[in-house]
UniProtKB/TrEMBL annotation:
Boundaries of every N-acetyltransferase domain copy: 9-171
Stored Pfam families: Acetyltransf_3
Gene3D superfamilies membership: 3.40.630.30
Organism in which the protein naturally occurs: Flavobacterium celericrescens
Protein name (record): GNAT family N-acetyltransferase
Domain of life: Bacteria
Length: 174
């Protein structure tokens, strides 16, 4: 699989040339809460990760793709299928648009539609799930728009600045 193409964006596999882009995202403390990151990543570790990004989802149990604009070919975000479980035909899904200026323009919706279609049609998954902070209104709206249903609340799940926040579990069953 090389790309999944939508109207204004496409999703593609990560390339070695994405080192600085992935490095910037992984080391942006403002998104650590949604990515469940606690420490910075070195370029060395990200380079190693990118060198192994060729592994297919059955081997790596994860598929991370760059979200790119069709008109400029610029990578503006990442979308992941993680905790891939082929026995039970399910995976988690996460999305991040790196620059706030690219948010609220339909890019996330288009990327999520592409990955849902890929997961259900190509991977033959039965369900997808998403873990969303209870105060992440944009993600809550996005996933709900695609039919994800809230199935549970993980109380005091995420610690941010010595305060605990709930995390909501959403599920989409084909």
């Amino acid at each position: 699989m090389t790309t999944l193409t939508g109207n204004t964006i496409y999703l593609r596999a990560l390339e070695p040339e994405d080192l600085e882009f992935v490095y910037a995202i992984e080391n942006n403390e403002s998104v650590w809460e949604v990515s469940n990151t606690q420490t910075p990543y070195s370029r060395f570790l990200i380079r190693q990760y990118l060198e192994n990004a060729h592994q297919d989802i059955y081997e790596a149990k994860q598929l991370r793709m760059a979200i790119c604009l069709k008109n400029s070919f610029e990578a503006i975000g990442l979308i992941d299928l993680f905790d891939f479980d082929p026995k039970n035909n399910r995976a988690g899904v996460g999305i991040l648009i790196s620059n706030e200026s690219n948010r609220n323009k339909g890019v996330g919706s288009e990327a999520l539609a592409l990955i849902i279609n890929y997961a259900f049609e190509q991977l033959q998954l039965h369900q997808l799930y998403a873990n969303i902070g209870s105060d992440n209104e944009i993600s809550l709206q996005l996933f709900t728009k695609f039919g994800f249903q809230k199935i549970g609340t993980k109380k005091d799940w995420i610690k941010v600045n010595n305060n605990y926040k709930d995390e909501l579990l959403f599920q989409l069953i084909k």
